[in-house]
Design a protein that fits this description.
This protein is mostly helical and about 475 residues long. It is built from 23 helices and two strands. A two-stranded antiparallel sheet has the order 1-2. A hairpin with a 2-residue loop joins strand 1 and strand 2. It is flat and about 85 Å long. The N and C termini lie far apart (about 65 Å). About 30% of the residues are buried.
């Protein structure tokens, strides 16, 4: 029973939900099977950990059916019935937490029953509640659409032949909701296509852009922000849209849920870091300040823990800006804000990076040997850091072996996008040129580094080439 879907679901319940589910199961409206009531009454005693010995099927069956011989089919049917109730319960919980949806079906029922006073009272109440909130996200416009739709239904039922504003409102609010969601999904697909090998295919991008070029963007902050994200990601020169995006995020920070602001912010930060990786040095300070802002505002968390990627990136940029004391203090004070399973790896990798930056290569290698390569990008960064140490320590024989191994690692990997693979291959190409220690090769390397080709560690390679 421990590995059943029923226990898997119940393990996600908090104390309040465990109690509420008891009331739900006891309600004859939802459940008339007394044996299911007994089953849950016993199981809930062992929430939330559900010790295996206590919930063995034979043990539970004996509690529910007393001295009757164990019947596996009967036990499975009982568990299935309780599982369906628990699933129904979580669905109802979600429904009740979405006032726009629940209000809509209540008011739609009033219209079907021709209860105009009930509809109008609840419509006004829902409108007041909706407008009292500062949120102006996609869900806000979806609720506006639902409310307008009930008015449109009511007008249609009366069969009056005159202009109806609610029909226009229904269409307009749905358009805003559709555009908001379409922009969210399109921007996410465009963004993911830059980092993974499987290509998404967003549709209607040209049509949306043409429409939004004529749209009063200032009237809908959510669309205004995502229009700038969209243009930032798709136009050749996205700097203007990037700067506008930062301002809009600051101007409308109380208009959206934290998770929505986090997504918008991540687009700005990812763009800034990509520009930095392309060799645009002004974006170093820009990205560093964005990271610090995001950490301070709680926009770079994952399940209430500091994101390991945010932690790593802000340290990396701090090192590039030679802010060694700040980085050391940040590692000492912020490492415990990471999820427990990330802490040790993050601590050792970033200490290795710090010691490398201060030219203490022995300590850097010591820390590189202290953690497991559980994530591909951490593995890649670690291998690159080790190659940089070998190069700067003039350990060329060891470096040649590392270069060959890294090339095979990149070629065999199926997760990386074509752009990422090319970026790392170009790093290998440039570093191989530098290792030759010939003026002709160094000149070729410098020319290559000034090209538009995607190259990992471009700034470090330029520094080594100039030396």
């Amino acid at each position: 029973m421990e590995s059943s879907k029923l226990i898997g679901l119940l393990k996600t319940f908090d104390k309040a939900e465990i109690k509420k589910l008891s009331d739900f199961v006891d309600s004859p409206y939802f459940n008339k099977n007394k044996e299911v009531v007994k089953l849950y009454a016993y199981i809930k005693l062992y929430a939330p950990h559900f010790p295996p010995k206590r919930i063995q099927r034979q043990v539970v069956f004996k509690t529910v059916f007393k001295n009757k011989p164990y019947d596996d089919k009967k036990m499975r049917r009982l568990m299935s019935a309780l599982l369906k109730l628990a699933e129904q319960f979580v669905g109802l919980q979600k429904y009740q937490s979405s006032p726009g949806i629940s209000n809509y079906y209540e008011m739609s029922s009033f219209i079907d029953r021709e209860l105009d006073k009930h509809h109008e009272y609840n419509y006004k109440k829902a409108q007041q509640t909706l407008e009292a909130s500062s949120l102006r996200n996609a869900d806000y416009y979806y609720q506006k659409y639902l409310l307008a739709d009930t008015m449109s239904q009511q007008f249609f039922n009366k069969k009056i032949r005159r202009y109806d504003q609610s029909l226009q409102d229904t269409s307009d609010f749905f358009d805003v909701y559709f555009l908001s969601k379409k922009l969210i999904y399109s921007c996410e697909m465009i963004n993911r296509n830059k980092i993974i090998s499987k290509a998404y295919k967003p549709k209607f991008l040209k049509e949306i852009q043409l429409f939004l070029n004529r749209y009063p963007l200032h009237s809908v902050p959510f669309i205004h922000i995502y229009y700038n994200i969209f243009m930032m990601l798709t136009s050749k020169e996205g700097t203007t849209y990037f700067q506008t995006l930062k301002k809009l995020l600051n101007d409308y920070e109380d208009h959206f849920l934290v998770k929505e602001t986090r997504e918008m912010f991540s687009h700005a930060l990812n763009y800034s870091i990509r520009r930095l990786n392309q060799g645009n040095q002004p974006y170093l300070e820009e990205s560093f300040n964005l990271c610090r802002y995001g950490i301070e505002k709680g926009l770079m968390t994952d399940n209430n823990y500091l994101s390991p990627w945010a932690y790593k990136n802000v340290i990396k940029m701090g090192l590039m800006l030679s802010k060694y004391d700040w980085v050391k203090e940040f590692i000492e004070t912020q490492t415990n804000d990471l999820a427990p399973n990330f802490r040790q790896n993050a601590l050792h990798f970033n200490l290795a990076d710090l010691y490398y930056s201060t030219k203490d290569f022995d300590q850097a290698q010591y820390h590189l040997n202290q953690f497991e390569y559980s994530d591909i990008y951490i593995a890649i960064d670690s291998k690159i850091l080790l190659m940089k140490i070998y190069y700067e320590s003039n350990e060329h024989d060891t470096l040649f072996s590392a270069l060959a191994a890294f090339k095979q690692f990149i070629i065999r990997n199926k997760i990386l996008s074509a752009i990422a693979i090319k970026k790392y291959k170009n790093f290998l190409f440039a570093l191989n040129l530098l290792v030759k220690l010939e003026q002709k090769a160094v000149t070729e390397c410098k020319q290559f580094l000034n090209s538009d080709e995607p190259i990992a560690e471009r700034n470090w390679l330029k520094e080594m080439a100039n030396q």
